[in-house]
Structures are given as structure tokens and as C-alpha cells.
Design goal:
It catalyses: dCMP + ATP = dCDP + ADP; CMP + ATP = CDP + ADP. The protein is an alpha/beta fold. It is about 50% helix and about 15% strand. It has one domain (about 5-210): 3-Layer(aba) Sandwich (Rossmann fold). The chain is built from ten helices and eight strands. Strands 2-6-1-7-8 form a five-stranded parallel beta sheet, with helices on both faces. Strands 3-4-5 form a three-stranded antiparallel beta sheet.
């Protein structure tokens, strides 16, 4: 037994999970694991190889040959695929629009869940995703389920894309988020669902500092 603490943050796309989790981890001096970035890194690897992302066999073969790692840098945590910094590339629209399908396969999820749990073995951790409280860390000390309106999430994604030089129209982003919500919540393997013991936090109308404070209050 260890005294390591586990905080699980789940929720739909662009609810603010990763941003909040990063801030909490830094403030608490915990490890941060961005599980969504792991699925995105696999998706990027598959797209680069022109693989069939609807093929579980092809995806598991690719996954067996790649290493996904994280490193804290001056400007935040970076994501590495076989040693290459892909922090920006995994956020491109073609990756975003394919990652839900890639993450829907049982064998893909089983392998990445195994890797995610290894991260939590070494130290206290904040982990965000869509099945952290239900599958990856079912015994987490605190489980949060972040939500926000579709309009607000689309605006957040639009602002983030604009900052990164991606000019996808707002209406297109809104439709993509709606479609992903449906896909993620109805998929067969580890669907997006609030754990019975998770606390619902609605981030609509709140800034990041306010959301972080809400969760910090729940930790005390």
C-alpha cells in the first residue's frame, strides 16, 4: 500500500479537463497524465502510416511499436511520440476528427489503460480523460466529471484553434463536438459516463481559475 493520491477528471471534449488537470497537478506537485494525448499520439502515428483507423489489428500493431511519453517544459507539458515532440501536431483537425474511432477499440484501450495505470504507480497523480473514474482509476480518491454547454465548448475550441493558426469555422467545430459527444457516450468500449461516485462540476460561464478553485475546495 502507498499514500499516493489519485484525482480522476472525466468529461466530454473541450470541457476544460486537461487545462484544469495541469494546473492542479502543478499546484499539488502531482504527476499529470493526459490520457487523451496518448490516444491522439496513436492516431497521429496511424495517419502518418496511412493505416486503416477502422482496423483494430492495424492499430494494435502500430501501438506495439511506439513509445508515448511526457516531459515538463518551460511552457508546460509536452507530448512525445518515439522521442519526437508532437505536442502541437496531435491537436490538428485531422487527428481530432479521427481519435474517437481510434480510441473505441478494446485492445487499444486495454494497452493504453495498462500504460496509464503504470504512471499512477509511482506517485500521486492527476489524470484526465473519458473513462478515468470508471475504468482506469476506479479507486481514485477524488473523481470529477466536468461538463459545459456545447456552445461554450465550441467557443473554447475555436479560440484555441485560432491561437494555433487553425481556422476551422465555429459552426463546424460545434457540429464536430456534438458528433463526438454522441460517439463517445454510445461506444461499446468504456463509453463516456459519469462514475456513480464522481462529483459533477459545470464549467459553463466559469473561468479556469474558478474551476480549479472549485476542485481544490472538494479536495479539502
Amino acid at each position: 500500500m502507498t499514500n499516493n493520491k489519485q484525482i480522476a477528471i472525466d468529461g466530454p471534449a473541450s470541457a476544460g479537463k486537461s487545462t484544469v488537470a495541469k494546473i492542479l497537478a502543478k499546484k499539488m506537485n502531482y504527476i499529470y497524465c493526459d490520457t487523451g494525448a496518448m490516444y491522439r499520439a496513436l492516431t497521429l502515428a496511424a495517419l502518418r502510416q496511412n493505416a486503416d483507423i477502422s482496423s483494430e489489428i492495424e492499430l494494435t500493431k502500430i501501438l506495439a511499436d511506439i513509445e508515448i511519453s511526457f516531459k515538463q517544459m518551460a511552457d508546460g507539458q509536452h507530448v512525445f511520440l518515439n522521442g519526437e515532440d508532437v505536442t502541437q501536431e496531435i491537436r490538428l483537425p485531422e487527428v481530432t476528427n479521427s481519435v474517437s474511432e481510434v480510441s473505441s477499440f478494446k485492445k487499444v484501450r486495454a494497452e493504453l489503460v495498462s500504460r496509464q495505470r503504470k504512471f499512477s504507480d509511482s506517485d500521486s497523480i492527476v489524470m484526465d480523460g473519458r473513462d478515468i473514474g470508471t475504468v482506469v482509476l476506479p479507486e481514485a480518491d477524488l473523481k470529477i466529471f466536468l461538463v459545459a454547454s456545447v456552445e461554450e465548448r465550441a467557443q473554447r475550441r475555436y479560440d484555441e484553434n485560432t491561437k494555433n493558426g487553425i481556422n476551422t469555422p465555429f459552426d463546424v467545430l460545434k457540429k464536430e463536438i456534438e458528433d463526438r459527444d454522441t460517439y463517445d457516450s454510445t461506444r461499446k468500449e468504456s463509453p463516456l459516463v459519469q462514475a456513480e461516485d464522481a462529483i459533477l462540476v459545470d464549467t459553463t460561464g466559469l473561468n479556469i481559475d474558478q474551476v480549479v478553485q472549485k476542485i481544490e475546495d472538494l479536495m479539502n
